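I had to read the description of the data format several times before I understood it. The format is easy to grasp once an entry is in front of the reader. For illustration, here is how one protein appears when written out as sequence plus structure tokens:
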Amino acid sequence: MPLFRRRKKEKNRPADEIPPDLWEECPGCRQLLYARELEDELWVCSKCGHHFRLTVWQRLEMTADPGSFEESDNDLPLVDPLEFPEYLSKTQAAREKTGMREAVLTGSCRIRGIPVGLGIMDLAFIGGSMGWVVGEKVTRLMEQCARFRRPVVMFCASGGARMQESLVSLMQMAKTSGAAGKLAEARVPYLSVLTDPTYGGVMASFAFLGDVILAEPGAAMGFAGPRVVEVTKMKMPPGVQTAEFQHAHGMIDIVVPRTQMRETLALILRWCMTERGATH
């Protein structure tokens, strides 16, 4: 199936009727944008530069070399340690909505010919929250790449730990951090890309442990999300939870526009692999 949304003419629609999805409103500047042009610009507003949120499939198509992606660990069982009310039905609804089995897609691919382990998180799947399956998939990806000396690129997008799994979810922070440590011990490059938004347990674990930490412009990030900040009445400087603020204060290495992300990743990967002696 096509990865980007395609607009098809409906058989019974009058020829002079404007298709309902011909235009998209930018959340940043509220301008109406021609959908086909927006798609050509990788879903970046030509008026204000706002980066629209992407599906996993859109992100995969604009990152991996065509036909190079092979998915891994797509058969892990769903867990419900607390028998949390409606959790299983909510997960099933998320699967039907997104086409994903869980909130992260992992596997191997090539980026400009460079073999990498790739992870892409899906914010549309229960807020991109990290439960056992997400933590296990990320850990397996990193451990396998450490074993075969293959660099890892991880696109992060999450609301944090998955509350329906309680302590099981929080334990994934330690597990994924340990896996990132194995990459460092093996001298295998790990590039973490923070997209909008990256919060909570994901931010406090593997998202901020990359050898190089990149972010898309305007991406929100932080340990406490906006709802937590509002409830606890914490006082925070304006704009502190943005990629630009974090970059200015040394928390991330580079802010990269989406149109330059693939080339930037390839450039950094080549440099890292030469410097660290990693092999293909």
Q: What stands out?
A: Confidence is low (pLDDT under 50) at residues 1-15. The beta strands are 23-25, 32-34, 70-71, 104-111, 114-121, 152-158, 190-199, 212-215, 221-222, 254-255. The chain has two domains: 1-6+20-52, 54-276.
